[in-house]
Predict the structure.
Amino acid sequence: MSSPPEYEPRSTSLFSPALLGARIPSQMVDRLQLARDVLRRCLKATSLRELDRRLGRSANYVARVLRGEIDLSFEKVFEILGAAKVDAGEYFEELAGELRQTGERGAAIPPDERPSDSVRALTARRLRTLEERLALQEQRLADLEGKGNGQEGR
């Protein structure tokens, strides 16, 4: 089934230039940098090289995301957090807290509220899906390594 001619797929980027126009307002750039900084702090227990390996990505992929060389998207956040075995809910709560501290209005959860159960459930489901995909990839890698070792002995 084809899409209507006026349909344009939307980017999952947190601050997609297609959604914001060619120039990204400095406030948005600051929020994006804050999101990267919080992500970096959440990943401190795992080496970036190990995360690249777990994700099956090229060397320095996660570092490039954290430096802003690769667009940060929700998909990438969930993927990276899943590889690091970090609860996405914790990341978003910490990010919301940071936004509150900067005095952002409308960008964060009000101080007297917590993320809704539906957001937590969605986050948990997405994280489980990513963990399952990661486990499958790790199993495939182990199978390939096992085949390689078996062939060398022949």
Remarks:
- Residues 1-22 have pLDDT under 50 and may be disordered.
- The radius of gyration is 19 Å.
- Residues 18-152 form one domain.
- The chain is about 65% helix and 0% strand.
